[in-house]
Amino acid sequence: MILQLALQGDSPRTSTSVSAELVPNKPRFCLNIQETMSEIQNTFKYEPFTQPDSIRLLALQPSPPGRTIRGSLVHTTLAECHYDIHFPYTALSYVWGDPKRTAKIIIDNQPFTVTANLASVLDNLRDEKVAIRVWADAVCMDQSNIPERNQQVGLMRDVYYFARQTIVYLGEADGPSREVFDVLRKWRPASEELIVSTAIHESAAIHILSRPWFFRVWIYQELVLSRGVWVQLGRDRMLWYDFCLALLGPNGKDGDAERALESPLSDLVMLSKMREARHSFRKSQLIEAEKPASLFSVLEARRGFQVTDLRDMVYGYLAVAGLHPRSKVTSSKSHDSRFLIDYNKTVADVFTDAASYIVETGLGPGILSKVELLNENRRMKMLPSWVPDWSQRVGRTTLQIPGPPGSPPLDSSYNPFLVISSVFVCKGQFFSSIKETGEESSFFVGIWRL
After folding, report:
1. Cα-Cα-Cα-Cα dihedral sign, residues 314, 315, 318, 323
2. CA dist 58 to 69, 89, 387, Å?
3. pLDDT tens for residues 52-69?
4. Residues of 377-405 as b/e, b for ≥16 C-beta within 10 angstroms?
């Protein structure tokens, strides 16, 4: 027996200052932000790539802070970076910021427009005496070139993995944020105090953990994949490990660390999950039996976070879930063609590809339980009704599917769900024949909104 859900209508980032202040307390969940890097018009001409694993690095020239930012683009490959011990690079993890707030920098003796926030990163990162090489997506990728974006986003896993370190840039410091960050940098755990005080927790939640970096999609992958991570506020920085240690305590749930995780401050819970995700991914790379987080679990946990291009709601998590096509430097395995980066696809197509993959892994009921309850005119156009809109951060969903009390378990090797041409299909499994009926059951499964 095959049951088809007949889903009607389904188908298939000139200012005279480069240290513009970042507003630290902007609303957290400004969803579906539509600004793109294409709004920033640059006449800069990029030299094309010549190798499948080609990347560009920005050689940032030494200068005191506040002066004109100058640099040059260096063409290299991930293979060369993998074996280069003399000229390592630093990867940047930051928020592009408002595309209407821009600054001019000089690259290869040509003016180049960037957002004020990226100018702030570069200004605060550069050294006064030594040139450094950095990878910043808005400069090192031609954002107006769709084929290049497809190819470069496909290399993100190794770009961050091969970097000597990644700088997590939280923005410019103001008085309160500088004060609490200074406390965290100087913190050393004592036997009687595993974490900082409640007052510092609260101040960090308000002035540090509420900053936009923590709520963007791409930063999750950048954090998890990087080998060494530094957290930077203005010109001050500290190791990610020490940052988490001060606020959460050691890994595990003992003593004060447990109280931090039980805190009503949701920002600390979020930070704890980010640390655990990074720990779990690194463990999966070292121990063959350990598997990375599933795409479904990552999408569920990060649902509704901020992203400029909604397709990145899926693309931004593929590497963390072990589904990202990797460069030839690290892997020769073939990958599911649905997860080849393609910005020519519609958002609905990308969401549907992800959902069909999740269904094939045996999580059909799980995917149905995450479809949001929204008025039909608020649903994404052309998105099949069984596919969750991961850009929506909603509390109510359509269906919860527990098994009826006493129901026999399904064969673990049997997956009754599949997707055919964007239609969700459920196949029945024969158990037995009904001999007689009893009283009506009060068991309630759910409401299907088709």
Report:
1. positive
2. 11, 9, 40
3. 999 999 999 999 999 999
4. eebbebbbbbbbbbbbeeeeebbeeeeee
Q: Is residue 345 a part of any domain in this protein? A: no
Is there a domain that residue 305 lies in? yes
Cβ(176)–Cβ(207) below 8 Å: yes
How would you list the strands of the sheet with 2-4, edge to edge? 2-4, 423-427, 417-420
Structure tokens at 280: 């779990």
Residue 10: helix, strand or coil by DSSP? coil
Whole-structure pTM value: 0.73
| pLDDT at residue 335, rounded to an integer | 58
Are the CB atoms for 293 and 318 separated by under 8 Å?
Answer: no
User: Is residue 78, in this structure, part of any structural domain at all?
Assistant: yes
Q: How many CB atoms lie within 10 A of CB 449?
A: 11
**What is the C-alpha to C-alpha distance for residues 171 and 32, in angstroms, rounded to an integer?**
22
One DSSP character per residue, 135-171 reads: E-HHHHS-TT-HHHHHHHHTTHHHHHHHSSEEEEE--
Q: Does the pLDDT at position 142 exceed 80?
A: yes
What are 37-96's pLDDT values in tens digits? 445 656 789 999 999 999 999 999 999 999 999 999 999 999 999 888 888 999 999 998
Which amino acid belongs to residue 28?
R
CA dihedral 170, 172, 178, 182 (to 10 degrees): 50
Q: Which domain holds residue 23?
A: 18-324
Nearest to residue 313, comparing CAs of 355, 368, 267? Answer: 355
Q: In the structure encoding, which two tokens stand for residue 208, read together?
A: 């540090």
| Overall domain count for the chain | 1
What would the two tokens of residue 221 be?
A: 């992958």
Report which of 195, 173, 171, 200 is spatially closest to residue 96, judged by C-alpha positions: 171
Per residue in 368-419, pLDDT tens?
878 877 666 777 888 888 888 888 876 555 555 544 444 444 444 556 676 7
User: Residue 6 corresponds to which tokens in the numbers above?
Assistant: 């007949």
Please check whether residue 47 lies inside any domain of the structure. Answer: yes
- The stretch 239-255 carries a mean pLDDT of 78
Reading across the β-sheet that carries 110-115, which strands appear in turn? 110-115, 102-107, 70-77, 54-60, 132-135, 89-93, 165-169, 229-233, 236-239
Token pair, residue 231, equals 């957290």
Residue 52 carries which side chain, given as an amino acid letter?
A: P
The phi and psi torsions of 19 (rounded to 5 degrees) equal: -120, 45
Model confidence at 170: pLDDT above 90 = yes
